[in-house]
User: Which sequence fits this backbone?
């Protein structure tokens, strides 16, 4: 043949399983031909049983490469200088990147042609190939991770009495037409690589941290855990109308729910950063990456118009009754603050969207005890504000009469650190009295 190996030509003296790597490289680049039965200098040496080699190749390409590359390959037996040679002609595939099934969609399994050799590519190059093939929509792109589990998602679906299986995964867009998991599948899977971060600050700025948490796993697990964490820090303020006690949260939980869902559904997941929730003394800020979709204004969003960035994710949330209709989230948040002296605000900049929920009791924090407002007795927040967890702890102590720290841990099913924090807080608020020392320390209601 007198031709040297190059970007579109490869010689193999005999069949080896490594030929799959060359096929992947050609399919991911500009195509090419592999001749089996030709030595490295281009001299035909032939193969002993060409029909058996053809069968081996057919099975190897069908089972060893994904997506299916067989429609872009042609295998034939040729006579070269009286020697039987097997030729594998590979065209550029339309579902790049192609990869070795046993290696997965990662650098060790994805190859491209560079000169006369096949070389592995970087994760960035894999992402670029996916974008070029699947388009710019993140949720429709193929996931770089294909070993996914869906325990949390399936549990959420079962709780809602919704079917959850391969057929539904195809319909929802979790599985693509090539039976590969999409990025939407990655988001709802237990292996989701994005997260939500919560930071709690002492005052109205970021100078002093009180607590910080990060929630991972399926976006449904993140949603549940973030909501519960906010609920823990969301104080309850008591006021009285005559003998009637009225409890009111610092932040309306429906507004929190809508803001949290909005951040998860509409964020741009092509960014690797996390959704940020910052909880200050006077406000809560939820910041999601991506901002509004290009060409879509904040004014239009406040009017109730909707242009979801992640249409299939939004449709899934709608199917699961997490959202009622597109474009209603911001309106619901505003309705939660209707008639109140403080109002939520929304801000969209390039790359980020921020929702600010004001603490509806922050303005009253400086008022003296028993100040009259509209004829209602107001008890200062520092004396009455209890989180849901603190209320449960107080009720447990009331029912038991008195408890030790260990007994409270058992009653609430919490760890030592959480029990210590709860008891310290209740003592500081004057709700609980501490008696004894060391192992004899007991706590009882005043």
Assistant:
């Amino acid at each position: 043949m007198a031709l040297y190996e190059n970007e579109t030509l490869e010689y193999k003296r005999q069949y080896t399983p490594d030929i799959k790597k060359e096929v992947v490289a050609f399919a991911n680049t500009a195509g090419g031909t592999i001749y089996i039965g030709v030595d490295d200098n281009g001299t035909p040496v032939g193969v002993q049983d060409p029909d058996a080699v053809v069968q081996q190749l057919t099975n190897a390409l069908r089972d060893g490469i994904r997506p299916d590359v067989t429609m872009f390959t042609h295998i034939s037996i040729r006579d070269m200088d009286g020697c039987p040679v097997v030729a594998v002609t590979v065209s550029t595939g339309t579902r790049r990147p192609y990869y070795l099934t046993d290696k997965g969609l990662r650098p060790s399994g994805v190859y491209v042609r560079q000169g006369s050799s096949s070389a592995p590519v970087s994760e960035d190059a894999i992402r670029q190939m996916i974008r070029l093939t699947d388009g710019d929509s993140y949720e429709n792109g193929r996931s770089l991770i294909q070993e996914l589990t869906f325990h949390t998602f399936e549990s959420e679906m079962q709780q809602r009495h919704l079917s959850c299986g391969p057929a539904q995964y195809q319909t929802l867009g979790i599985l693509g037409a090539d039976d590969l998991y999409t990025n939407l599948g990655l988001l709802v899977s237990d292996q989701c690589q994005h997260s939500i971060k919560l930071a709690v600050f002492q005052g109205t700025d970021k100078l002093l941290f009180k607590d910080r948490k990060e929630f991972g796993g399926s976006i449904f697990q993140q949603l549940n855990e973030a909501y519960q964490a906010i609920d823990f820090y969301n104080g309850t303020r008591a006021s009285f109308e005559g003998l009637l006690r009225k409890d009111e949260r610092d932040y309306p939980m429906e507004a929190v729910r809508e803001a949290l869902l909005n951040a998860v559904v509409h964020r741009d997941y092509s960014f690797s950063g996390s959704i940020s929730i910052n909880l200050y003394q006077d406000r809560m800020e939820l910041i999601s990456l991506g901002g509004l979709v290009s060409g879509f204004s904040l004014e239009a969003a406040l009017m109730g118009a909707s242009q979801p960035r992640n249409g299939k994710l939004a449709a899934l949330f709608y199917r699961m009754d997490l959202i009622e209709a597109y474009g209603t989230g911001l309106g619901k948040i505003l309705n939660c603050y209707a008639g109140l002296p403080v109002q939520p605000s929304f801000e969209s900049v390039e790359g980020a969207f921020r929702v600010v929920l004001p603490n509806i009791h922050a303005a009253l924090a400086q008022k003296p005890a028993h100040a009259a407002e509209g004829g209602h007795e107001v008890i200062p927040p520092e004396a009455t504000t209890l989180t849901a967890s603190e209320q449960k702890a107080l009720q447990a102590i009331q029912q038991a009469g008195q408890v030790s720290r260990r007994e409270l841990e058992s009653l609430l099913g919490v760890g030592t650190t959480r029990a210590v924090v709860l008891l310290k807080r209740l003592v500081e608020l004057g709700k609980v009295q501490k008696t004894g020392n060391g192992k004899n320390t007991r706590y009882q209601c005043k």
